[in-house]
Amino acid sequence: MDFRRRRLAVTLRNQLNYPLQFNPFVFSKIFLLWVAIGIVGGVIAGLYWTVLEGFLHFLAPIQGLWVIPLMAAAGLLAGFIIHKLGDPGEMDLIVNNVRFKGGHLEPKNNPSMILSSWLCIASGGSAGPEAPLVQVVGSTGTWIAKKMKIRGEDLRSLTIAGMAAAFTALFGAPLGGTLFALEILHHKHVVEYYQALIPAFVASCSSYVIFILITHIGIGPTWNFPVYSAPELNDFFYAMLYALAGTAAGWLFIFTVRQCRSLFKRLRVPIYIKMMVGGLLIGTIAYYVPLSRYFSHDELNILLEEQTTLEFLLILLVAKILAISFTVTSGWRGGFIIPLFFVGATVGLIVNNLFPGQNLPLILVSCMAAINACVTRTPISTIILLSTLTGFHHFIPIMFASLTGFFLAPKTPLINAQLGVKE
């Protein structure tokens, strides 16, 4: 025993006398792969966003009654693309493949995902580019891993790193995007893939820089939120109280999506017909409630700037929930995270109308955190994402609201693959 102690002491003394050196891991192949996936992800996200902005610039001026035939035609065309090039799947498939197929995301249907999602998002679908990009960049991570003959958990980690790079590029939050990519995979064990945390974070940081360089999007909050004063102790309790409204909206959204999903499953028609029908429904809603159109990246700022009545907000809430539900269940491509934040902000404004004189920034961020945590089961990353997107830098009230939405969520998650049952 004494011999071992003396040997350990000699070893430690020798190490302390070593000259300062870089950690050799920084120059290892696997670390450079993490960086490379982030760079590739940033380039893909940047080019995708640039082209999407071009489509939006071309299609956004089409307003009024013309919105209905436009969105019906867009759904039909996007459906033909999916029918001919292959169905790329949705978030359920991504989660299922990462969890039960060793992290293998197939890139063969990426052209179908890219082309169809451009049409769906640019024409006015109520779903954003986060889900398509997660599929594309995540599968690129799988492809790179296979080319480098990487197997096992390292392959899964590279796939998750690609997913995180995509989330980060769009949300502008490297830590939030990293945690979201990990949390979305399971609704209970948020650290199940803890070994992918550092790869995802490294890829997120490099993706973030490349995306900003390509798109020239500024660094700072995405939405113009009202200023929040220094938090008080009561704010934490108020945050949980306001979060009840956001959680109720989350339940309503999940119920609506399930009913719409059941409705479209009964339609025994090709996917392009389903998507055309979805386009007609979304377009009709957009005609009567224009603010429900698109995935709400810019519309949320408009909502915060306008003077709105309680009646308008209630109509907008119902219209937006229906628009998102029809979008994600009729085959239209896109993600519902940013649209959910819009719904949460609408609920917050309704609460503020019903009980004027309250702390508006706290109401808004509490409802937004609660609905997202309730629907996506991502309470930790929601805190960081919302703080980055809104400039609301006091974490603790958001934390209380996010956990309220998470723990009061329905037993069965909206993303079925989160249950842990192989599909």
UniProtKB/TrEMBL annotation:
<feature type="transmembrane region" description="Helical">
    <location>
        <begin position="30"/>
        <end position="52"/>
    </location>
</feature>
<feature type="transmembrane region" description="Helical">
    <location>
        <begin position="361"/>
        <end position="380"/>
    </location>
</feature>
<feature type="transmembrane region" description="Helical">
    <location>
        <begin position="336"/>
        <end position="355"/>
    </location>
</feature>
<dbReference type="InterPro" id="IPR001807">
    <property type="entry name" value="ClC"/>
</dbReference>
<feature type="transmembrane region" description="Helical">
    <location>
        <begin position="392"/>
        <end position="409"/>
    </location>
</feature>
<feature type="transmembrane region" description="Helical">
    <location>
        <begin position="194"/>
        <end position="217"/>
    </location>
</feature>
<dbReference type="Pfam" id="PF00654">
    <property type="entry name" value="Voltage_CLC"/>
</dbReference>
<protein>
    <submittedName>
        <fullName>Chloride channel protein</fullName>
    </submittedName>
</protein>
<feature type="transmembrane region" description="Helical">
    <location>
        <begin position="309"/>
        <end position="329"/>
    </location>
</feature>
<keyword id="KW-0472">Membrane</keyword>
<feature type="transmembrane region" description="Helical">
    <location>
        <begin position="269"/>
        <end position="289"/>
    </location>
</feature>
<keyword id="KW-1133">Transmembrane helix</keyword>
<dbReference type="GO" id="GO:0015108">
    <property type="term" value="F:chloride transmembrane transporter activity"/>
</dbReference>
<feature type="transmembrane region" description="Helical">
    <location>
        <begin position="158"/>
        <end position="182"/>
    </location>
</feature>
<feature type="transmembrane region" description="Helical">
    <location>
        <begin position="237"/>
        <end position="257"/>
    </location>
</feature>
<dbReference type="GO" id="GO:0016020">
    <property type="term" value="C:membrane"/>
</dbReference>
<keyword id="KW-0812">Transmembrane</keyword>
<feature type="transmembrane region" description="Helical">
    <location>
        <begin position="64"/>
        <end position="83"/>
    </location>
</feature>
<dbReference type="InterPro" id="IPR014743">
    <property type="entry name" value="Cl-channel_core"/>
</dbReference>
<dbReference type="InterPro" id="IPR050368">
    <property type="entry name" value="ClC-type_chloride_channel"/>
</dbReference>
